Structures are given as structure tokens and as C-alpha cells.
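Work Package 3 (structural annotation) set out to generate three-dimensional models for the target panel prioritized at the project kickoff. During this period the team completed the workflow that converts sequence records into C-alpha cells, so that structures can be stored uniformly alongside our sequence database. As a representative example, we reproduce one entry of 446 residues exactly as it appears in the project archive.
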Amino acid sequence: MQETLIQNAQTVITMDDDARVLHDADVLIRDGQIAAVGQGLQTFGQIVSGAGCVVTPGLVNTHHHLYQNLTRAVPGAQDALLFGWLQRLYPIWARFGPEEMFVSAQLGLVELALSGCTLSSDHLYLYPNGSRLEDTIHAAHEVGLRFHPTRGAMSIGESKGGLPPDSLVEEEGAILEDMIRVVDGFHDASEGSMCRVGLAPCSPFSVSRELMRDAALLARDKGVMLHTHLAENDEDIAYSEAQFGCRPGQYAEELGWTGDDVWHAHCVKLDAAEIDLFARTRTGVAHCPCSNCRLGSGIAPVRGMRDAGVPVGLGVDGSASNDMASLIGEARQAMLLQRVANGADAMSAYEALEIATRGGADILGRPDCGRLAPGKRADVAVWDVSGVASSGSWDPAALLLAGPSQVKHLFVEGRQIISGGEVTSIDLPHLLERHGRLARALAEQG
């Protein structure tokens, strides 16, 4: 039996079913689970001081493209809208191989961990030069984050009217075969699983109607989740109306892409009927506020979604469209954008934090995560609120108004992977050197 006691925390935000916020409290971790939350807890195991700290569930990232952190701030893509941005970057990504996929995944997951994230999805939809989904799965295993990779795909290249170059698309039969391979090989459906695999054709403008439908049928047969991009910006809506004669929500519904086993990224341009559809079917949305700002896509109607009952989580999106991957930063941005759109009382700091924890976990089908309660997984973030960022705050629990941008300690399945602000699971200086070398080689080729 292994125990860790986070002792005498200033505040514990549980996100449990009763939404308890406790003061001068402890969190007891035992064998990868939360054993107890309360005052005066005891242990014969490790004790971690929570003095001057706020403790929250680990944050949950519901949309990412980990490979993209090798192409941050690329000239020619810095000020482009979505389609132009993709066209600038596709030729660079076509030069990636297994090493680039592995190293970028490690760097991206470390970056997420430092921002308080314990569970991350990833949407990998291109596989150049022998790359495979397991390149990222092995990276996550070494870093120690809970992982929900999705086997993405593109099948319609430029020669058939799509956006990606033909060199980056795959034959649809081969895509489906590999989807079966990775689910059979790496998906763990058990409670407490460290790796679950989803199926994720990239977008309606890069795969066929047939692949969307076949992927949905396969996912239901295998009992895994579905993910794609939807209604991201005005170009996306115009493409759907021109090519399919309907809006994205209707297209998704016709192909079986609604339900509580589906979550869509962005959804910036959902209209009232689509919001109602998603609410009725419990279809999830990965809200990516910083990326939506960076690409000028707009402000997603999160207030309207939440009020209607649409499940909403947060995503950092790819580092080439966000340029950083801070989940605590996304939570603050989500809160601020809803206030810009709807008024200062549109979203509280607590609600935004709930979306970033429990909300994201529920979208990924992980009710065992995203809350601090006995029997839930021991994914815990400890935030030091004794420093400059929180000094003078009358409510240190309002982390998104005045709080640190990095965690002091982070536990995943009870294992401490960040201690005192330092990564303990891998050699970070070596990773940074390797990552920088790969990025420079890509940049030198233009």
C-alpha cells in the first residue's frame, strides 16, 4: 500500500457532487485513488505540505495536436486564417517522422503538466514517413500523464478538392485497418485506465462522407469515442453549405456523429438549432479559446451551450495555432471571453475551473477523474498561492482571477510527476535540447 497525504492545504476545491470547497484541509492518496478529503487526516506514508496552497483536481485537456509544438510562430502562418494557416504548415509537417512525433508529444505533455493538466487527449491526423499513433502513446507513458490519443486521418488531398497535399492523405481502407489495430493494441477501457484510444477523422473538409460514417460505425462496434473538428470558423460553415448543402451540425447528425460518445473541437459557429441538437444528444464540445482568438475564428457561444445543457470542456489546441499549451491559461481565457461577449457576470472563475476539470473529464467519458472524492483517481494539482501572483487576493481559491500559471506539485494516479515546480518523470534539459535540434532542422529547410 502506497500513501501520500497532502496536509493542511489552505483551500481544497473538490469539484465533487456537492461542489465542496474546504479550508485548512487534507487530501489522502492511496494506491492511485483518493482515499479521503477532510481535516485531520493521518498517514504513515509520504507527507506533502499544502500550506499556502490551493488543491484542485488535475485539469483535463480535451483537444490538442501535440506534434505542432515543433512549428510554433512560423513566419507566413503567424497572421493567417485557418485555411491559409493549414496550407502554410502542411508541407512542413510532411517532413516529420517517428522521432518528431515522439519528442513533440513529450514536450507538449510536460508543458501541459506544468500548467496543472493530468489527463490529455490528442488528435493526430497525419502519419508521414512511418509515424504511428504509438509514437505519442509511448511518449505519454514516459512522462506519466493520463492519455486519450485519437487515431485521426485525412483522405481527401488537393487533387480531389481537399486542403492537404496528396502526400499527407491515406487510403480509407488502410485508415480503418489501422484504427482497428491501435484500438485493439492500446485501448484500455477499465476504470483508472492510463490510455484510452478514440477515432478521429480530421474534419469534414479532409475526409469523405463514407469515412465519417464508417469511423462512427467502427467506434460503436469497438466501444470507443469519436472526435473531429466542427464549425470552427466562417470558412468552415461556407465549405459545409457548399459541399454538403447543410450546416455542420446537420452533417454530423446525418452521419452518426452525435451522442455522449462524441465530442467536437471548437464549435465556434454553432447556431441555436445546433446547440439544441448537441444538448439533446449530450454531444460534447472542446472549447479552445486561445486558438480561436489566435486564428481570428471568433468567440464560441459557451454561455449558451452551458445554459442549454451541452457538455463543454477545454482544449489548448495545437501549439502552432496557440503557440503555447497552458490549460490554466485556457480556463482564464474562456472566462474572460464569455464576459466580453455577455457581460462581467457571464462566467465565474469557479465555473471556468469546473469546465477545466470535471467538465473535461466527463466529455472524455472519465467520471473517475476531474474531481477529488473518495474512490476517484488521484490526479491532483497543488497551486502555491503564497507568491507574487496571488499576493493581496482576498479569495485565493479564485485562481483564475489571481493565481499562479504553473503548479507546485502534480500527481497522476498518485505518482508525483512535478515536485516543487520541477518535472521528476523525465530529463527535461535533455528533452529541450533534442526538441530544439529537431525544430531548428525543420526551420532550416523552410
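The chain has a mean pLDDT of 96.
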